[in-house]
């Protein structure tokens, strides 16, 4: 086996056999996902509330629909849409001649889906009974560009999870290996520094991609209902670039700290506040302007931004290239700092 | 050839501490060489300069004709350095550890497993390094240092913190490694270890070498007394004084009767005539006495 492969294997086993590391890299972020996904999505199995704007004959002629829908009436479409947007109702419906208009909120994907299904069926049955196809169903999301909870939290939490994993992995390994004199033992073997670094980078990338796969997999389960957009795979280069930045940050932390605990604390002090200020946990749209500007100095902000664009906003592959460039720039600068700070030994 | 290691006038300072203060010696091919001294004597610093882990302030080192500093990739495959007991990859088993090290030197896994057997750890191959006993992990680290079949082996206090049985086992292992033709350099603060293992020892204190030579020669050069002790009551104090002669020191502490003499043969013959040799203890001068003699201090590691 080549030195690169055997060192990578040694590092990977060290990670996979460390329950704490596994917990913090995989389970902990998933707990956040489940927590946010459940609290904020607030799904239920009760009847879906529908606001009927004006007269909707189609609904009046369909008693079966009333069993699953709770219908209230209103006259003003704008007011009804606002209620839907606030989450007070699942959808608003209006009939304009033979066209049925359904306004739903994407905040609750499950109910929105249910309601769309019910109306689709309604229109279909009416068309079968009536002579040549009379009704059409037009659906429209009340939010223009805002996203529902799982759609928003998944990219941010994933960016945070990857940052944490990469920073901690690099910081802890570096310090532990230095403390335990493994670095100096490696220095006594005819192995190049580049090989050791490549092994570490390779293992960290593998762990990040594993995190991504598990994370997106869990979020896509029907309970959470994540809908990935067409170019989601562009998240892969983002994950790779983000891993490199945060490994470099972890290396700096590991270079400055004296003990493994110290390194983890320093990494935490950098990563956690950055996650909040980068909009990884909640949108920065409501934050003051200066904070939104400030957030640009954090690599995690660009990572979150890029992930949102490609994972759920459905933007094209080229749209994340600027973000990717910025993140790689950060990686380069911090990487150089890490190399300068690097010490083989405590002596 | 002949001289595997040549050290000339080595100096290393840490602030005010002169950790190594003008050390010179050579080690011959196939020799078992010891550096003996109390804690803080400068043994580790000296050894690590020779291994190429630290840079000397002044002086030269040659190992196998090569300079170890700066990091010399041509020298590295030819030397083996024993890790401290804890310096293993985290959460890897003994077999995984040694195979990883083997791969760094291009040594196949089968050879690594063989080395595990040489140090008697084949039944612990699947155990994680953290769960090995002190003696076992010491043997594992020696196996890792030997896996690429180096010409010179360096060991820094290999038997520190081992129980007596584990120490004896380790000594046997080290002897056989040396017998197989390797040059071994070891530091220790145990007098008995240096005496029992080394062809030659350098006695070090405060960064300097005080004395250097085969243990037996150092001890013999001392002209110190031999201590003979018998159980109290087997011989009366007055008889003992008479038997040992005027120049001997005789005392009885209620447990044992002790005779310190420069003519042990005469005393032992007299005791044999009285049939008093059963349970007798004879202790010649040791490196401890050499140290005491050199520094005027009692040897305490
Ligand atoms: N990295 C270091 N920084 C400062 N002082 C050191 C360092 N390494 C060793 N020393 C000092 O040098 C002296 C010799 O240390 P060392 O070589 O470790 O002795 P030994 O191995 O014989 O116990 C000691 O006084 C020790 O405190
Ligand atoms: Mg020492």
Describe the structure.
Chain A is of the alpha/beta class and 347 residues long. Chain A has two domains: 48-141, abc type-2 transporter like domain (abc type-2 transporter like fold); 150-341, no CATH class. Chain A has 14 helices and five strands. Chain A has helices at 3-16, 19-41, 57-60, 63-68, 77-86, 109-129, 149-179, 182-187, 193-219, 235-256, 260-277, 289-294, 299-311, 321-341, and strands at residues 48-53, 69-74, 91-96, 99-104, 136-141. Chain A has a five-stranded mixed beta sheet with strand order 2-1-3-4-5, with helices on both faces. In chain A, a hairpin with a 2-residue loop joins strand 3 (91-96) and strand 4 (99-104). The longest helix of chain A has 31 residues, at 149-179. Chain A is elongated. The mean pLDDT of chain A is 85. The radius of gyration of chain B is 23 Å and the shape is globular. With 301 residues, chain B is α/β, with parallel strands linked by helices. In chain B, helix 2 (94-104) packs across helix 3 and helix 2 runs parallel beside helix 4. The longest helix of chain B is centred in the middle third of the chain and has 16 residues, at 164-179. Chain B has two domains: 3-220, P-loop containing nucleotide triphosphate hydrolases (Rossmann fold, 3-Layer(aba) Sandwich), CATH 3.40.50; 226-284. Chain A binds chain B through residues 1-3, 5-7, 9-10, 13-14, 17-18, 176, 180-182, 184-191, 345, 347, and chain B through 48, 51-54, 71, 73, 76-77, 79, 81, 83-84, 86-92, 96, 99-101, 103-105, 109. Adenosine-5'-diphosphate is lined by residues 14, 17, 19, 37, 39-45 of chain B.
């Amino acid at each position: 086996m080549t030195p690169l492969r055997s060192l990578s294997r040694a590092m990977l086993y060290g990670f996979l056999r460390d329950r704490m590391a596994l917990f913090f890299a995989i389970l902990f972020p998933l707990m956040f996902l489940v927590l946010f996904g459940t609290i904020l999505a607030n799904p239920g199995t009760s009847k879906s509330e529908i606001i009927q704007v004006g007269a909707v004959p189609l609904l009046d002629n369909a008693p079966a629909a009333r069993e699953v829908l709770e219908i209230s009436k209103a006259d003003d479409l704008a007011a009804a849409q606002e209620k839907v947007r606030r989450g007070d109702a699942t959808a608003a419906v209006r009939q304009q001649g033979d066209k049925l208009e359904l306004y739903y909120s994407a905040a609750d994907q499950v109910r929105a889906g249910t309601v769309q299904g019910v109306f689709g069926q309604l229109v279909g049955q009416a068309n079968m009974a009536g002579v040549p196809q009379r009704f059409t169903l037009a659906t429209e999301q009340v939010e223009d560009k805002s996203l529902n909870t799982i759609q928003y939290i998944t990219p941010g939490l994933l960016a945070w999870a990857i940052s944490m994993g990469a920073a901690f992995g690099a910081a802890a390994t570096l310090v532990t290996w230095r403390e335990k004199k493994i670095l100096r033992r490696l220095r006594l073997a005819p192995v190049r520094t580049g090989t050791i670094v490549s092994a570490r980078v390779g293992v960290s990338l593998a762990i990040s991609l594993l995190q991504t796969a598990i994370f997106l997999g869990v979020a896509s389960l029907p309970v959470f209902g994540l809908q990935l957009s067409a170019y989601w795979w562009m998240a892969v280069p983002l994950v790779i670039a983000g891993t490199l930045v945060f490994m470099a940050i972890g290396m700096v932390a590991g270079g400055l700290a004296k003990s493994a605990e110290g390194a983890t604390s320093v990494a935490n002090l950098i990563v956690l506040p950055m996650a909040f200020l980068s909009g990884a946990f909640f949108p920065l749209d409501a934050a003051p302007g200066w904070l939104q500007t400030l957030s640009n100095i954090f690599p995690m902000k660009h990572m979150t931004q890029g992930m949102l664009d490609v994972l759920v906003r459905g933007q094209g592959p080229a749209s994340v290239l600027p973000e990717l460039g910025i993140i790689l720039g950060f990686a380069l600068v911090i990487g150089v700092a890490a190399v300068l700070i690097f010490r083989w030994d405590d002596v | 050839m002949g001289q595997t290691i040549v050290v000339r006038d080595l100096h290393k300072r840490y602030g005010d501490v002169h950790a190594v203060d003008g050390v010179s010696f050579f080690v011959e091919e196939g020799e078992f060489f010891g550096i003996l001294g109390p804690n803080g004597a400068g043994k580790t610093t000296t050894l690590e300069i020779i291994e190429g882990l630290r840079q000397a302030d002044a002086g030269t080192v040659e190992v196998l004709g090569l300079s170890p500093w700066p990091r010399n990739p041509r020298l590295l495959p030819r030397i083996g350095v024993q890790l401290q007991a804890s310096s293993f990859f985290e959460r890897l088993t003994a077999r995984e550890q040694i195979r990883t090290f083997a791969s760094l030197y291009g040594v196949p896994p089968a050879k690594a497993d063989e080395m595990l057997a040489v140090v008697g750890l084949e039944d612990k191959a699947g155990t994680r390094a953290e769960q090995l006993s002190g003696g076992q992990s010491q043997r594992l680290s020696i196996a890792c240092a030997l896996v690429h079949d180096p010409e010179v082996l360096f060991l820094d206090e290999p038997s520190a913190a081992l129980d007596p049985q584990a120490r004896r086992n380790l000594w046997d292992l080290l002897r056989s490694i040396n017998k197989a033709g390797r040059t071994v350099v070891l530091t220790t603060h145990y007098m008995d270890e240096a005496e029992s293992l080394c062809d030659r020892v350098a006695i070090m204190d405060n960064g300097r070498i005080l004395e250097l030579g085969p243990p037996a020669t150092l001890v013999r050069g001392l002209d110190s007394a031999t201590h003979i002790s018998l159980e109290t009551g087997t011989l009366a104090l007055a008889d003992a004084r008479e038997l040992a002669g005027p120049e001997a020191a005789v005392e009885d502490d209620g447990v044992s009767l002790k005779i310190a003499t420069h003519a042990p043969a005469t005393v032992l013959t007299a005791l044999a005539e009285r049939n008093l040799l059963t349970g007798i203890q004879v202790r010649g001068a040791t490196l401890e006495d050499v140290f005491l003699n050199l520094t005027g201090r009692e040897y305490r590691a």
